[in-house]
Amino acid sequence: MPIAGKFITFEGGEGAGKSTQLTRLADRLRASGEGVLSLREPGGTPFGEKMRDVLKHPGSVIQPAAEALLFAACRAQLVAEVIAPALASGQVVLCDRFIDSTVAYQSGGRGLERAAIEAANRLACGPLRPHLTFLLDLDPSRGLGRASLRDHGRSDRFEALGEEFHRQVRASYHALVREEPARFRVLDADRSPDLISEEIWHEVQARFA
Ligand code: TMP
User: CA-CA to 56 of 20 to 30 Å: which in 3, 24, 41, 154?
Assistant: First the structure.
């Protein structure tokens, strides 16, 4: 499969099952002989992992603009140190969240100006864009419920923002799909993980075979 050097991202609200699906796709690609790098945002570098703790910690007090810039800073570090070299060396890069999360959460959810978020994304990654983005779409009440079960009732700083915030995030993701339908594949995340991973596998084969 000519998938070497492809960049695939997973997006969605809380509890949508992105990381499970990313892991399944990575395993399947590796089994078919591909070199795969699995990453998450924020994270994937020592700087990004430290910032992840700060950004998610319920006790952190961070202004919306500062929050957007911190996500962009993590991304700049990850792109330069990890993603760009991996793609150049022919690996398939899978990333749990990327530029669309900042548009959905910091513009859609927090209400920051979209153009400013786009500028921060451009600064962080230049012209790099995912070749394919899976949006795991789920009603926020279901997703927050699942996240709460997973985390034993301990909400992080974003989960704690409540359903209305997460409805804005979801609406923003839907708007992004309308803007770039060719890049996105929307998946109903309220189904069994097996069904979803089959759909993902077929899409990857159809796109890159
Ligand atoms: P997660 O890895 O469990 O999805 O946690 C990351 C959290 O950070 C999630 O609540 C979404 C949020 N986030 C943003 O608000 N903006 C971003 O740009 C990114 C990458 C994540």
Answer: 24
